[in-house]
Protein backbone atom coordinates (compact mmCIF):
# COMPACT_ATOMS: atom_id res chain seq x y z
CA UNK A 1 0.00 0.00 0.00
CA UNK A 2 1.25 3.51 -0.81
CA UNK A 3 1.99 5.58 2.25
CA UNK A 4 0.64 9.00 1.36
CA UNK A 5 -0.77 11.69 3.60
CA UNK A 6 -3.89 13.21 2.13
CA UNK A 7 -5.12 16.37 3.78
CA UNK A 8 -8.65 15.35 2.80
CA UNK A 9 -10.88 12.72 4.30
CA UNK A 10 -10.71 9.54 2.27
CA UNK A 11 -12.42 6.20 1.93
CA UNK A 12 -11.81 2.95 0.14
CA UNK A 13 -13.69 2.61 -3.13
CA UNK A 14 -16.07 -0.34 -3.06
CA UNK A 15 -14.94 -1.56 -6.50
CA UNK A 16 -11.27 -2.50 -6.10
CA UNK A 17 -10.56 -1.08 -2.66
CA UNK A 18 -8.44 1.88 -3.81
CA UNK A 19 -8.35 5.18 -1.97
CA UNK A 20 -10.69 8.01 -2.95
CA UNK A 21 -10.76 11.42 -1.26
CA UNK A 22 -14.20 12.60 -0.24
CA UNK A 23 -13.78 15.62 -2.54
CA UNK A 24 -13.31 13.40 -5.62
CA UNK A 25 -16.15 11.80 -7.55
CA UNK A 26 -15.73 8.21 -8.70
CA UNK A 27 -18.67 6.33 -10.23
CA UNK A 28 -19.49 2.88 -8.87
CA UNK A 29 -18.66 1.32 -12.27
CA UNK A 30 -15.03 2.46 -12.02
CA UNK A 31 -12.33 0.07 -10.76
CA UNK A 32 -9.88 1.71 -8.36
CA UNK A 33 -7.16 -0.80 -7.45
CA UNK A 34 -5.99 -1.23 -3.85
CA UNK A 35 -2.86 0.94 -4.18
CA UNK A 36 -4.37 3.60 -6.46
CA UNK A 37 -5.37 7.12 -5.36
CA UNK A 38 -8.07 9.47 -6.63
CA UNK A 39 -8.07 12.83 -4.88
CA UNK A 40 -8.54 16.58 -5.19
CA UNK A 41 -11.54 17.48 -7.34
CA UNK A 42 -10.82 14.62 -9.76
CA UNK A 43 -13.69 12.87 -11.53
CA UNK A 44 -13.55 9.29 -12.81
CA UNK A 45 -16.48 7.96 -14.87
CA UNK A 46 -17.63 5.10 -17.06
CA UNK A 47 -15.74 1.82 -17.15
CA UNK A 48 -12.38 3.40 -16.33
CA UNK A 49 -9.68 1.59 -14.36
CA UNK A 50 -7.20 3.26 -12.00
CA UNK A 51 -4.79 0.64 -10.71
CA UNK A 52 -1.24 -0.11 -9.68
CA UNK A 53 0.26 2.91 -7.93
CA UNK A 54 -1.59 5.30 -10.27
CA UNK A 55 -2.95 8.68 -9.20
CA UNK A 56 -5.78 10.79 -10.61
CA UNK A 57 -5.74 14.19 -8.94
CA UNK A 58 -6.41 17.91 -9.19
CA UNK A 59 -9.28 18.74 -11.54
CA UNK A 60 -8.46 15.80 -13.81
CA UNK A 61 -11.20 13.94 -15.65
CA UNK A 62 -10.90 10.27 -16.65
CA UNK A 63 -13.77 8.65 -18.49
CA UNK A 64 -14.84 5.94 -20.93
CA UNK A 65 -12.79 2.75 -21.05
CA UNK A 66 -9.61 4.57 -20.07
CA UNK A 67 -6.99 2.79 -18.00
CA UNK A 68 -4.51 4.60 -15.75
CA UNK A 69 -1.98 1.98 -14.60
CA UNK A 70 1.45 1.49 -13.09
CA UNK A 71 3.01 4.66 -11.67
CA UNK A 72 1.06 6.84 -14.10
CA UNK A 73 -0.54 10.12 -13.06
CA UNK A 74 -3.35 12.15 -14.58
CA UNK A 75 -3.41 15.52 -12.87
CA UNK A 76 -4.12 19.22 -13.15
CA UNK A 77 -6.91 20.00 -15.58
CA UNK A 78 -6.03 17.05 -17.84
CA UNK A 79 -8.78 15.02 -19.50
CA UNK A 80 -8.28 11.44 -20.67
CA UNK A 81 -11.16 9.61 -22.33
CA UNK A 82 -12.22 6.94 -24.80
CA UNK A 83 -10.09 3.80 -24.82
CA UNK A 84 -6.86 5.59 -23.81
CA UNK A 85 -4.19 3.89 -21.70
CA UNK A 86 -1.87 5.92 -19.49
CA UNK A 87 0.70 3.55 -18.04
CA UNK A 88 4.22 3.04 -16.80
CA UNK A 89 5.68 6.25 -15.40
CA UNK A 90 3.66 8.50 -17.74
CA UNK A 91 2.19 11.78 -16.55
CA UNK A 92 -0.68 13.57 -18.24
CA UNK A 93 -0.99 17.00 -16.68
CA UNK A 94 -3.23 19.95 -17.38
CA UNK A 95 -2.79 23.71 -17.30
CA UNK A 96 -0.34 23.57 -20.22
CA UNK A 97 -2.82 24.61 -22.91
CA UNK A 98 -4.37 28.00 -23.32
CA UNK A 99 -6.30 26.49 -26.24
CA UNK A 100 -7.04 22.90 -27.15
CA UNK A 101 -4.27 21.08 -29.02
CA UNK A 102 -4.41 21.45 -32.77
CA UNK A 103 -4.42 18.72 -35.42
CA UNK A 104 -4.06 19.51 -39.14
CA UNK A 105 -3.86 16.81 -41.81
CA UNK A 106 -1.44 17.94 -44.51
CA UNK A 107 -0.91 16.25 -47.88
CA UNK A 108 1.96 14.08 -46.54
CA UNK A 109 1.96 14.22 -42.73
CA UNK A 110 -0.25 15.45 -39.90
CA UNK A 111 0.74 18.48 -37.85
CA UNK A 112 -0.08 18.29 -34.15
CA UNK A 113 0.44 20.84 -31.40
CA UNK A 114 1.83 17.99 -29.28
CA UNK A 115 3.02 20.04 -26.31
CA UNK A 116 2.89 23.70 -25.40
CA UNK A 117 5.15 25.55 -27.88
CA UNK A 118 5.98 22.48 -29.99
CA UNK A 119 4.72 20.86 -33.16
CA UNK A 120 4.90 17.29 -34.34
CA UNK A 121 5.03 16.75 -38.10
CA UNK A 122 5.21 13.09 -38.99
CA UNK A 123 7.54 11.63 -36.33
CA UNK A 124 9.60 14.78 -35.77
CA UNK A 125 8.90 17.08 -32.79
CA UNK A 126 10.43 20.56 -32.61
CA UNK A 127 9.60 23.95 -31.14
CA UNK A 128 7.64 26.51 -33.12
CA UNK A 129 10.77 28.54 -33.87
CA UNK A 130 12.77 25.46 -34.93
CA UNK A 131 10.06 24.51 -37.44
CA UNK A 132 9.85 28.06 -38.76
CA UNK A 133 13.63 28.08 -39.36
CA UNK A 134 14.10 24.51 -40.62
CA UNK A 135 10.95 23.41 -42.46
CA UNK A 136 12.39 24.03 -45.95
CA UNK A 137 15.55 21.96 -45.28
CA UNK A 138 13.55 19.19 -43.61
CA UNK A 139 11.05 19.18 -46.49
CA UNK A 140 13.90 18.72 -48.97
CA UNK A 141 15.38 15.90 -46.84
CA UNK A 142 11.97 14.18 -46.85
CA UNK A 143 11.61 14.57 -50.65
CA UNK A 144 8.69 16.99 -50.42
CA UNK A 145 7.88 18.78 -53.66
CA UNK A 146 8.24 22.57 -53.80
CA UNK A 147 4.44 22.86 -53.52
CA UNK A 148 4.41 20.62 -50.42
CA UNK A 149 7.18 22.65 -48.78
CA UNK A 150 5.16 25.80 -49.42
CA UNK A 151 2.01 24.07 -48.04
CA UNK A 152 3.80 23.02 -44.85
CA UNK A 153 5.29 26.48 -44.41
CA UNK A 154 1.75 27.92 -44.45
CA UNK A 155 0.43 25.18 -42.13
CA UNK A 156 3.28 25.75 -39.66
CA UNK A 157 2.59 29.50 -39.68
CA UNK A 158 -1.10 28.81 -39.00
CA UNK A 159 -0.34 26.31 -36.23
CA UNK A 160 2.07 28.74 -34.56
CA UNK A 161 -0.46 31.58 -34.77
CA UNK A 162 -3.22 29.46 -33.22
CA UNK A 163 -0.97 27.71 -30.69
CA UNK A 164 0.52 30.80 -29.05
Q: Which terms summarize this structure?
A:
164 residues, elongated, 2 helices, single chain, alpha/beta, UDP N-Acetylglucosamine Acyltransferase, domain 1
Description:
With 164 residues, this protein is α/β, with parallel strands linked by helices. The chain has 2 helices and 18 strands. The protein has helices spanning 128-141, 146-163, and strands at residues 10-12, 19-21, 25-26, 31-32, 37-38, 43-44, 49-50, 55-56, 61-62, 67-68, 73-75, 79-80, 85-86, 91-93, 103-105, 110-115, 118-121, 124-127. The strands form 4 sheets. The chain has a 6-stranded mixed β-sheet with strand order 1-2-5-8-11-14, with no helix packed on it. Strands 3-6-9-12 form a 4-stranded parallel β-sheet, with no helix packed on it. A 4-stranded parallel β-sheet has the order 4-7-10-13, with no helix packed on it. Strand 15 (103-105) and strand 16 (110-115) form a beta hairpin. The chain is elongated, with a radius of gyration of 20 Å.
In short:
With 164 residues, the protein is of the alpha/beta class. The protein has helices at 128-141, 146-163, and strands at 10-12, 19-21, 25-26, 31-32, 37-38, 43-44, 49-50, 55-56, 61-62, 67-68, 73-75, 79-80, 85-86, 91-93, 103-105, 110-115, 118-121, 124-127. It starts with 9 loop residues before the first strand and ends with a helix.
